[in-house]
Amino acid sequence: MDPAEPDDLAATQEAVVSWYDDNARDLPWRRPGTTAWGVLVSEVMLQQTPVVRVKPAWRSWTSRWPTPADLAAAPTAEVLRAWDRLGYPRRALRLQQCARAVVERHGGIVPTDEESLLALPGVGAYTAAAVAAFAHGRRAVVLDTNVRRVLGRALEGRALPAPSLSRAEQERARTYLPDDAARSVRWNVGLMELGALVCTARAPRCPACPLVGTCAWVLAGRPADEHAHRRRTQTWHGTDRQARGRVMAALRGSDGWTGHDELLRAAADGADPAALPDRSQPGRALASLVADGLVVAGADDRAGWYRLP
DNA sequence: AACGCGGGGGT
DNA sequence: ACCCCAGCGTT
């Protein structure tokens, strides 16, 4: 498809927007009355965590800490406990730092411009654009993994987007962004929804796609992913991340201080016996959590004891 | 540009 | 078993 052809462009926009009108999921953070802070919280939670797992956590968080000031004032240990198993708990830490920055820099009001949003802890290019668009109705280039995949297929005929976002990709996305702000929001959320429900990474449901007639990837016969050989499978069993996760789980379930030995046992617990034992891993995991500010190490008579911050 | 960072559900 | 998920910050 020629991206510069105005008729194709308008037809593509209309196809996505009207498909979204008919197929949008009823997600809690899309309901009328959701605050900008609620949208921001949802976006941070959705960074690498699937929608189904975010839903209950988001309801609990927004009910418990409805405003940035509420979260800013909360005990960090409670914030980390409430984060529970959403994964990547550094996000919870940054979200509280973000809440404090919103209070200090913006009087407790979530800013509307992408530049101010981007300056907040835990808010990167995607989240800044998403909050500007979905919380404030602004025109913004929202490029997440879903949008990149849909545009890559429909416009370029690629099975999956390249590992890193290119300038050309951003420019092309900007070209397709509707001029009207309200319509651009529906376009953005429509592309994301299309990627989540139809144009999925693994088993796309092309017959159900509003773009199937013009999709460059379909027209090319759905060629395979050209980057497949470069994608690294993320190993999980036996990794430091798994050990860190176990330490955090142990601390979430414990009031007050926990001893060094107990935490190291937790870190090693359940490790694959067949795997090469790495005796330094438990200690390394604990040290890295302390370095990240996710765990506090006691001093003096509390030396050798640990707790959530 | 590449890497580290959780955890669980779908295939 | 493997893959993927509304990415970000650091190196």
UniProtKB/TrEMBL annotation:
InterPro entries noted in UniProt: DNA_glycosylase (IPR011257), Endonuclease-III-like_CS2 (IPR004036), HhH-GPD_domain (IPR003265), HhH_base_excis_C (IPR023170), HhH_motif (IPR000445), MIG/MutY (IPR044298)
EC id: 3.2.2.31
Annotated protein name in UniProt: Adenine DNA glycosylase
PANTHER family, sorted: ADENINE DNA GLYCOSYLASE
GO biological process: base-excision repair; mismatch repair
Pfam families: HHH, HhH-GPD
Occurrences of domain HhH-GPD (ranges): 45-197
Reaction catalysed by this enzyme: Hydrolyzes free adenine bases from 7,8-dihydro-8-oxoguanine:adenine mismatched double-stranded DNA, leaving an apurinic site
MF GO annotations: 4 iron, 4 sulfur cluster binding; 8-oxo-7,8-dihydroguanine DNA N-glycosylase activity; adenine/guanine mispair binding; metal ion binding; oxidized purine DNA binding; purine-specific mismatch base pair DNA N-glycosylase activity
Family in the record: Belongs to the Nth/MutY family.
Uppermost EC category: hydrolase
SUPFAM superfamilies (alphabetical): DNA-glycosylase (SSF48150)
Lineage, top ranks: Bacteria, Bacillati, Actinomycetota, Actinomycetes, Micrococcales
Reported cofactor(s): [4Fe-4S] cluster
Alphabetic keyword roster: 4Fe-4S, DNA damage, DNA repair, Glycosidase, Hydrolase, Iron, Iron-sulfur, Metal-binding
